[in-house]
Design goal:
7-stranded mixed β-sheet, 3 domains, alpha/beta, 323 residues, two-stranded antiparallel sheet, extended, Rossmann fold
Length: 323
């Protein structure tokens, strides 16, 4: 009886904690390069797999199963438009790799690759309990370092980034570099995306329309080309994405009366002027000279002209006598 009762019995796997330890590195004005840790929540990959389109989910399946023996490149590149869930994928990756990899988020990446001392403290000169062949993954958000014009704008920062991944600086150190960017793949520097340098290069895009409708459960609010993960969460909460209202047209009150242009103006020479005293004065000064009249004028029966309108000249104040 005892043998039959325990024949097909299996031990239930221990529940994995939902929180994962993640480090945050930055340069403190008082302490120099500093690392602090926090417990962050991260779901499992099967729980969030439906948040990504099919090609991204397939690529993530392979990335979540990577072990230290499978590492072929030192650069992990995630690129795509904002709101597609790249940060959530990195949190889940930190949970999947926590048995063999320590994940640190660099808060000042532009200073990391511009300050040699800061870079050496992280890459070589620090041993913070990561012995036993434990790897370290440095997460950064640095668009300006991997663009096509990075060689001219960022100086040696791009060279140091590449040197840390597969150059002399990274030799003998178990360091991976994860970069997230919103830049298009065509705008990235060719040296970053060359074959053999990246452990994974995944473009995280929006969900297609059928996938978005299946995720949301309704077609209301889903665009023709699909929706991003952030837009779907906003639709589920019942809030529309924030948008800037269109500017209202400016209506100018004006007239084309000939009386505002000046006396003796030619027929049809009315001008568009605003209703203000200053505009009427300027229009009267710029009015064209009147055409000569054929009838008797004020000059003794000869053909004359209509006298132009003259504005009174302001009298000058008499000068003060000198003492």
């Amino acid at each position: 009886m005892l043998r039959q009762s325990v024949e097909d019995a299996e031990d239930e796997p221990e529940p994995q904690p939902e929180n994962v330890t993640m480090g945050f590195r930055y340069v403190s004005p008082r302490r120099g390069p500093y690392r602090t840790t926090r417990q962050i929540s991260a779901g499992t990959w099967p729980e969030i797999r439906a948040n990504y389109t099919a090609p991204v989910a397939t690529a993530m399946d392979q990335l979540m199963k990577v072990t230290p023996d499978d590492i072929a490149g030192r650069l992990l590149l995630l690129h795509g438009p904002p709101g597609t869930g790249m940060t959530s994928a990195l949190r889940t990756l930190a949970r999947a790799w926590r048995d063999w990899c320590q994940v640190d988020c660099v808060l000042d990446p532009e200073r990391l690759f511009n300050d040699v001392g800061y870079l050496m403290d992280i890459a070589i000169g620090e041993d913070d309990g990561t012995a036993g062949g434990r790897w370290r993954l440095l997460l950064e958000d640095c668009d300006e370092l991997i663009r096509g014009e990075a060689r001219h704008t960022a100086g040696q920062a791009l060279s140091r980034l590449l040197n840390l991944t597969d150059g002399l600086l990274g030799q003998g150190r178990n360091v991976l570099v994860g970069v997230t960017t919103n830049e298009d793949l065509e705008r990235l520097h060719p040296a970053v995306v060359r074959p053999g340098r990246c452990l994974a290069r995944i473009e995280v895009g929006a969900l297609t329309r059928p996938e978005a409708v299946n995720w949301l459960g309704t077609e209301e609010g889903v665009g023709r080309d699909g929706s991003t993960l952030a837009e779907l969460f906003a639709l589920r909460r019942g809030t529309a994405p924030a948008s800037v209202p269109a500017p209202r047209p400016v209506v100018t009150r004006a007239c084309t009366c000939e009386g505002l242009v000046g006396r003796g103006a030619r027929p049809g020479a009315g001008r568009r002027v605003a209703f203000s005293r200053r505009s009427r004065r300027r229009a009267a000064r710029r009015s064209p000279p009147p055409a000569p009249s054929s009838g008797p004028g004020p000059g003794g029966g000869r053909g004359g002209r209509t006298p132009r309108r003259r504005w009174p000249v302001r009298a000058r104040r008499p000068a003060r006598p000198r003492r």
